[in-house]
Amino acid sequence: MHHKTRVLNVQENVIVKASISKQIAEQLRSAIVNGQFKIGERLPTEDELAQRYGVSRPSVREALKRLAAQNLVRARRGPTGGNFVVQPSYAELAESLSGAATLLVGMGALGIEEIIEARRILQGSCLQQAIANVSTEHLQNIETALTRQQDPEISDEDFCQADVAFHRALVDATDNGMLRFVMYTVIEALIPVTNMVVTVVRERSDIISLHRQMLDHLAQGNSAALRAKMDELLDYLLEKFAQASAKRA
Question: Which residue segment(s) compose the domain that 74 sits in?
Answer without folding.
Answer: 2-85
